[in-house]
Amino acid sequence: MSILETRGVTKQFGGLTAVDDVNLEIDEGEIVGLIGPNGAGKTTFFNCITGFYPVTEGSVHFQGQNVNDLEPWERSREGMVRTFQQSRTMNSMTVLDNVKLTALDHPGEHIVPALLQSDEMLDYEQDVEERAYELLERFDLVDQADTYASQLSGGQRKLLEVARGMMMDPELFLLDEPYAGVEESMVDRIANYVRELNEEEDMTFIVIEHGLEALVELVERLVVLHNGAVIADGDPEEVVRDEQVIEVYLASSIE
Amino acid sequence: MSAETPSVEGRQDRLLWIAGLVLVLLGLAVMMSGIAPGLSGPILIVIEVGIFFLLYALLVLPVNVQFGVSGLVNFGPVLWFGIGGYATAMLASTGSYQGQTFGLPWPFAVLVGVVLAVLVGLLLGVTTLQLRGDFLAVVTLASAEIFYGIVEKVGGFGGATGIGGVPRIFEAGSFPMTDVAVTFILAGIVVFVYALAQRITFSPYGRVLKAIRSDEDATEALGKPTFRYKILVFVYGAIIMGLAGSLLALYNGAVSPGFITLDVTVLVWIGMLIGGAGSNRGAVFGLAIVMGLQLFTRFANDAFPVSQSEFAALRLMIVGLLLVVIIRFRPSGIWGNPEEREVL
Amino acid sequence: MGVIQSVIFGLQLGSYIAIAAVGFTLIYGVVNFINFAYGEYMTIGAFMTFITVNQWGLPAIVGLFIALVVTAGLGWIVSRIVFVPMQGTGAIPMLMASIGLGMFLRNFYQLIAGGEVRFVDIGASQFEFDVLGGFFISTQHILIIASAFIIFALIHVLLTRTQAGIAMRATSQNELLARASGIRTKQVRRNVWIVASALAGVSGFLIGTTTFVSPLTGFNQILLVLAAAILGGAGSAYGAFIGAYIIAFVITFTTAYLPTEISGLGETLAFLVLIIVLLVRPSGLADVEVEA
Q1: Whether pLDDT at A41 is above 70
Q2: B44 domain-assigned
Q3: What domain range is B234 assigned to?
Q4: Cβ contacts (< 8 Å) between B3 and chain A: which residues?
Q5: Looking at per-residue confidence, does C154 or B100 come out higher?
């Protein structure tokens, strides 16, 4: 069953085509890698899927529904959660608050319940806090619960982004360069988490990385972007040996 | 457990509401009792400055929730202060030397003042909240200046003289007791607004606001309609600040452009920054420091053979210097939390 | 009042706003913050003019020179003490610091010079004309307007033909790129402080000779200067220059042609123009790239 479908998605900035007619169908439970040299359009593509950029042409379909008209916040509530290339954790808030933040449908996030501090709201907050602690335990961040996010290491911040995304019960998780700026030891941990979540919750993942071999072990399917267009899509081992793909990577590294 | 709890430490919150209620009742009691003890000169000066401190506190708290908590730079609090004040004054006044008046019941005038403030808050919010920080500062500032310019120059608004003849609802028989009553009532209102501000700040609602301050796009990616939150923060602030303006008009019996100058905006901002933007307590205490200096100079002036204007200049120099020093060496202010200060 | 007269007044008002706006916008573009104390730099220029011309009895041109040099020096010193150590802390903290600084300086001037208003006498002669609706123009007008254009021409030369100036423009447009191309941005900022302060001094001279000198001389104009800079496009000297004259004309023409009850609204109208510009085209006249 397809969870995400992009039909002819194109994004142009003035004269520059950053994403070029991308037709991709992702099934539920897949772990898909998205690679390509710098400037290939990977993050731009994510921005189109999540609604941060309106598409110039084409449409994005999530769980069978055309989401072109939905705002980013609406799409993420539908179950499409993303992380960012450069960790965008709330650094002036504690780790715990970062995770509690993303809880959905919290009555306390509306002004009247917040001011009245009803029992209903306080109970919900209690539940949210419990769930947040559970998530922090799972991602081994529980000791940092009361630390301000600014003090975490690069890898810890990436994990925090995942933990808080998990609070939203995502169906589709879009990870943008989860390994970038992360300590060696963390890279394996992150990969393990992805595999676990995929197995246990049947969560679909699309992971962006820009190294050619970075995702071969983790993903079951690899898509390669170049100049905004898909130039390869299939089994990771085969894709990284594909001549065109190798040429594209060589060419970009020479530049 | 966590750094913040949704209910503001239950006991402290309860105390605030009780204190607020007691103060308001005390004020009403004074107003209606008709007692008139003699009050010495110095006490009267303290009360006079105190009343303005309380009115400005009703400006600093919304500005703090807008800037300190949510990251929105509102440089035009006097706009809403003025809208509330002028709308109430013009609608309720029974006759002014200059300017258009309508002699309507004052509760209605207050309501209209608040509604107008909200509408302006909505208008500005919808059109300007996507601007980056310093541009937003400029637009809010310019809007306040536009309002100031209009009421100062257009005769219908009373011009430089302003609008007089506004019913003084806090009359307590004798002049000093009116001021005492008003002080208590305003203090109670400030305590209420403070309690509300605390509840907002330390609730899940406040969590979203702080996230918006920290990283708006990421917050939007995490399922929050950030634009709505920002507009509403402007609107809620407009209500309180408009109300403050109405209270000024009804206490003073008059409004004039002198009450809504840039100096007031600067005073409120300096108070908030010195005390610590983001902290409601800090904002109010910081404002108290700045106005305390004002009080101090009024008394100390008598002890020094220096002219009043020179002393005032000295005081303002100290205030300005204090602000620079705080920004340089303790940008989170005296009571602010350095961890929670964003580089904006 | 004839159109020509309004034009002359507009050019005069525009001239001192324009020079200040250019200095102000250089700071905005290169040091990246709104300097709310800039008016106080202008006031230094005004006072130096008064001292030089009225108290020492020297010719106006010397007054201009002294105003320029002293303000440049003092402005640079103040920047070293207050703003250079704050480099990188962000536009808002620096804006706040400038508000505090401005308050400090304004009242400092009040303390040492007293609040009374002083007039600078540069012995202007007036010429009356009866054609084209009748207007008068004085040597003062000519001096002011000519100074503004000459100074601006010099700035133009600075920005386009000197290395320092080109470096300023590059840094203003894209600091990272400028630094990557080897430009010493710290020096560029220092240069900008000196030039911007000098311009403030010149503007102070122009205002002082046209209107009056008081501790609030500069502060009274800061909002118009800010409006001109933003209208022109934050960081663009050319935009600021033109923006200033546009605002000045809006003010002088509304003062001249609106009914008396609301004729004082010229300045208010200028702010309205500013808001509209920010909403419709935040990049200003010069279409300066705006980071969100």
Answers
A1: yes
A2: yes
A3: 10-261
A4: 94, 96-97, 146
A5: C154
Reply yes or no on whether the pLDDT at B5 is more than 70: no
Q: Per-residue pLDDT for B344 more than 70? A: no
Instruction: Tell the burial category of A61 from Cβ atoms under 10 Å away from its Cβ (0-12, 13-18, 19+).
Output: middle
Closest Cβ–Cβ partner in C103, C107, C272 for B146:
C272
Contact criterion met (CB below 8 Å) for B344 and C93 = yes
Q: Which residues of B touch C264 (CB under 8 A)?
A: 149, 152-153
Round to whole Å and give the CA distance between B81 and B86: 9
Record: contact C279-B154, CB cut-off 8 A:
no
What is the per-residue pLDDT across A203-212, written as a single tens digit (0 to 9) for each?
999 999 987 7
Confidence at residue B240, expressed as pLDDT on a 0 to 100 scale: 97
Query: C118 forms bridges with which residues in the sheet?
Result: C213
Query: Which residues are within 8 A (CB) of C131 and not within 5 positions of it... i.e. 6 or more apart?
Result: none
Rounded CA separation B214/B175 (Å): 49
Length of chain A: 255
Domain assignment of residue B129, yes or no: yes
Separation of CA A41 from chain center: 15
Q: Do B320 and C100 touch (CB under 8 A)?
A: yes
- pLDDT score recorded for residue B2: 37
Average pLDDT (B238-258) is 95
Total residue count of chain C as it appears in this document: 292
C residues 48..87 contacting B (CB < 8 A): 82, 85-86
What structural domains does chain C harbor?
Answer: 3-280 (1.10.3470)
CATH of residue B235's domain is 1.10.3470
Distance from CA of B84 to the nearest CA of C (A): 20
The average pLDDT across B86-98 equals 90
Q: Is residue B189 part of a domain?
A: yes
Q: Which residues of A touch B203 (CB under 8 A)?
A: 108, 114-115, 117, 121
Asked if C146 is an interface residue toward chain B (Cβ–Cβ < 8 A), one would say no
DSSP state of B255: B
| Number of domains present in the structure of chain B | 1
First and final CA of chain B: distance in angstroms? 29
Average pLDDT, chain A: 90
31-70 in B: which are within 8 Å (CB) of C?
none
Task: Quote ipTM for the complex.
Answer: 0.91
Which residues, numbered 250 to 289 in chain C, qualify as contacts with chain B under a Cβ-Cβ cut-off of 8 Å? 261-262, 264-265, 267-268, 271-272, 274-275, 278-279, 282
- B189 pLDDT more than 90: yes
What residues contact residue B43 under an 8 Å CB cut-off, 6+ apart? none
Q: Best mutation site among B203, B210, B226, B227 for testing chain A: the one with the most A CBs within 10 Å? A: B203
Contact B123, B235 (CB under 8 A): no
Across chain B, mean pLDDT equals 88
Per-residue pLDDT tens digits for B264-285: 998 999 999 999 999 999 999 9
Evaluate whether the domain defined by A2-89+154-254 bears CATH number 2.40.170.20: no
Averaged over B14-21, what is the pLDDT? 90
Are C and A neighbours with ≥3 CB pairs closer than 8 A?
A: no
Task: Tell me the CB-side half-sphere exposure of residue A1, using CA atoms within 13 A.
Answer: 12
Residues of chain A with CATH 3.40.50.300: 2-89+154-254
pLDDT < 50 positions in chain C: 292
- Structure confidence by residue, pLDDT tens digits, B192-234: 999 999 999 999 999 999 999 999 999 999 999 999 999 999 9
Residue B289 included in any domain:
no
Q: Are C69 and C201 in contact (CB under 8 A)?
A: yes
Question: A91 with A149: CB under 8 angstroms?
Answer: yes
Residues of C in contact with B152 (CB under 8 A): 264
Specify the higher pLDDT residue, A186 or C168: C168
- The answer, yes or no, to whether residue B6 has pLDDT greater than 50, is no
Please enumerate in sequence order all residues whose Cβ is within 8 A of that of A193, keeping only pairs 6 or more positions apart, or say none: A139, A159, A162
